[in-house]
# Entry
Amino acid sequence: MLDLKLVQKNPDLVRENLARRGSDMDLAEFSRLDRERRALLVEVEALKARRNEASAEIAGLKRAGRDASAIIKEMAALGARVKDLDQRLADIGRAERDWLMSVPNLAHESVPPGKDENDNPVLRTWGQKPEFAFQPKDHHDLGVALGGLDFERAAKVTGARFTVSYGWAAQLERALAALMLDMHTREHGYIEATPPFMVNSASLLGTGQLPKFEQDLFKIEGWDYFLIPTAEVPVTNFFRDETLKDEDDLPVGFCSLTPCFRSEAGSYGKDTRGLIRQHQFYKVELVRLSRPGESYDQLETLTGHAEAVLRRLGLHYRVISLCAGDLGFSAAKTYDLEVWLPGQQQYREISSCSNFEDFQARRANIRYLPKGSKKSAFVHTLNGSGLAVGRTLVAVIENYQQADGSLVIPEALRPYMAGLDLVRPEVKKDRWI
# Structure
């Protein structure tokens, strides 16, 4: 949520930034409400000043034994008017807050201009695209041929955009998650946390999914619970309505392995094949809380932690900076990591790392007490995928496939695979998968 005072005092700055993002938000209604609020405040203050004067007048008349009924009648009408104005001011305050809740964050000055993903500049690449002496398969065909992925049974059990993993595929997915968690906790200093996989609406309001993006969520009927779209939501809300008393506790970082549930309401017909866009998938999420002046250094640090996993796995990737028109609702700046998928002959997003500045902290009321200050301030929040486990599985399958249809297990994962270093194609007449 934007700072109310910023919008009131610098509407042109806000308007220009939102236009830069391609937002169609109109400040006219907010400006109208704010003008009405200011006028009402002037009237209320004048009426309350008159009420104070009248109280003294009434007391003086009564001491003098004179009739005060006219002033008392005037005060009754004045009191009713003040009550009405106070109610209108409260209504305007709620309307302004509702408007602020629907407004996206302001893009940081370093965010490149642009309208959509086609305008996102590539900042750097790592590694080389693998070369194959054969036509590489995509993960769907290879995973099914090796007996590890089953989309038909998942569709029967639940529906489209779900998958069953067997044997080596289930083990490999677990190994990927374990590698990520070990790297982030042992090497990068994150605290591992396992949050609830359902959250209440206040948590989703705090991180910006509600009220604007409710259609993208799975709600539990009859409860104020939603399945989490990412661990960002519960982990960031650990500190909702709290003030961190010791500034030295910042920055603090958490990593969490959770399932993620998304309705993909706005992606009908996109990526229906394979694991790229599922209703349920696992992700290791990185969440950091920072002092305001350090948050952009922390964004570079967090992004580097996500990159380290791709490097450990030997996967070629690139880092792009999202342009203003492609930023997510809550983000002030975002880097996407895109891994190369040879079976699809394209780069695909595997991590998105963002600095939200104080946007989420204002919504969730997360503060800290700066040293030497008696007044608290909002923290800055950041998060990123470290990584999306299912998409990393896709990348490993497509990049490590062999000409004979087998799959080499990357060296970094072998300690987690109980000695398995190669998945071989097997032909069995009585196969059940």
Remarks:
- The longest strand covers residues 280-290.
- The chain has a mean pLDDT of 94.
- The two ends are 50 Å apart (CA to CA).
